Structures are given as structure tokens and as C-alpha cells.
Amino acid sequence: MTIRPITITGEPVLHRRAEPVEVIDDGIRELVADMFETMDAARGVGLAAPQVGVGLRIFTWQMDNRDGIPARGVVINPFVTSSKPPVGDPDPHDESEGCLSVPGESFPLRRGETATLTGLDLDGNEISYSATGWFARMFQHEYDHLNGFLYVDRLQGKWARKAKKAVKSQGWGTPGQTWMPGTDRDPFGHDDVDEESEDFGTVPEGGHTEATEDELAR
After folding, report:
1. What CA–CA distance (Å, rounded) separates 50 from 145?
2. What CA–CA distance (Å, rounded) separates 71 from 210?
3. Which residue of 31, 51, 73, 178 is 20 to 30 Å from 21, comparing CA positions?
4. Residue 165 CB neighbours (<10 A)
5. Which positions are catalytic?
């Protein structure tokens, strides 16, 4: 297994529709293993293949939930349907998303409160899951990646303007930019939390639980 660099907004593979997987072979299994390794190193709750530079319809996840869905999984050639987002402005505290391909930033976005995922597992078996809350949000977030959209593309009003300003100020939006989980400093501040925990002689709270607004990174 290999940790792969994560592509940053502006990389073309992130902004076009990913291709279906035709055959689940050893190459696909190696890619999925690398995606899990990369997702774990980045402390993300989800990762889509375009985020490691591969334009195929695959995403992985690691996220506890109350929906009876395996906390760790992969889906190949997924299809996601969701309820309509609630009417009104998103709550900056409770509805903010982050993304490993827009590292270190988070902005509020309304999504459907329920979502259904269908597709194939790594053995080619059909899977079907119904999710609620943040797990449903994660499915929608990752599925967007496979259709060439980042969550910042869905922002509206002042949040869209803030996101564009952040992307510009970081010098993103052009091809060839990546960051390396486990090597580069964590853009969402997990390294700082770990260091603070070590200073106080405590064990940091364990990795992947239910997503918070800063952890939903897909």
C-alpha cells in the first residue's frame, strides 16, 4: 500500500466526470488499498479516486454511523440519490464542509438529510445503503467528486465569494498542485491537536468517528 498525493482544486481530473470501472482487477484492488492508506493518513472520512489523480468512479469511506452501514467501505460505480436540501441558509456551525482537495478550508452548505447509495463492492457484489445526517452528506460529497464537482462549486452567495477568495489567495486553481498526507503538515490542524495532547500527557481522541464540520473531507 502506498500513500498517494492528494490533488488540489484546479487539477483537471477533479473537474471532469470520472469513468466507470470496467473490470475489478488487481490494478483496481491496488488503487483501493492505496486510497484507504491515503485517506487514513489524511485523517479523512471519505476519498474519491479523482482526489488521488485517477479518473475512475470509486470512493472509500471511514465513518461511524447510526444507519447500520459498515463504518469502513468502498463503492465502485456508485449511484447516489438524496432528498432535497432544506430551504434556507446553511448554518455556519452545523453545516460546514471541508474537503481534502480544498485543504484547510471549510464553508457551510445545505445538503439533503437522507441519501441512498448503490454500487459494487470490491468483490463485484451489489451493495445498497440508506444513510442519514452526516453519513448522507458524505455520500453526496464523494459522489459529487465523481461527477466533476467540489463542494465549493455548490456554495451560494457570500460563501461562494469567500471560497473563491480563499482559492485565489492560496494560489490554487491551476494544474499540478498536490499535498502529501503524512509528510506535509495536516491542513485541518490535526497535527496541532496531537501535539497539544502529547504536551498534556494524554492520548488523542481516536481517529474516525462521526464526522464534524471540519472532518468531512472528501
Report:
1. 7
2. 9
3. 178
4. 10
5. 142
Handedness of CA 107, 109, 113, 116 (dihedral sign): negative
Q: Check if the beta carbon of residue 71 is closer than 8 Å to that of residue 54.
A: no
* Cα 83 to Cα 66, 111, 114, distances in angstroms: 18, 8, 6
Tell me the pLDDT tens digit for each residue of 14-69. 999 999 999 999 999 999 999 999 999 999 999 999 999 999 999 999 999 999 99
Q: Which helix (H) or strand (E) holds 96?
A: strand 96-98
* Residues sharing a CB contact under 8 Å with residue 76, sequence separation 6 or more, in sequence order: 21, 24, 28, 57, 58, 119, 120, 121, 122
Cβ count near 187 (within 10 Å): 20
Residue-by-residue DSSP string for 38-93: HHHHHT-SEEEGGGGT--BSEEEEE---SSS--SEEEEEEEEEEEPPPPSSPPPTT
CA 2: distance to chain centroid? Answer: 18
Q: Is the dihedral of CA 151, 140, 38, 10 positive or negative?
A: negative
CA atoms within 13 A on the CB side of 126: 3
Tell me the C-alpha distance between 130 and 132, whole Å: 7
For the stretch 94-116, pLDDT in tens is 999 999 999 999 999 999 999 99
| Rounded-to-integer distance, Cα 112 and Cα 121, Å | 24
Categorize the per-residue pLDDT at 193 as very low, low, confident or very high, splitting at 50, 70 and 90.
low
Q: Decide: residue 166, CB within 10 A, 0-12 exposed, 13-18 middle, 19+ buried.
A: middle
d(CA 207, CA 125): 28
Mean pLDDT of 153-179: 97
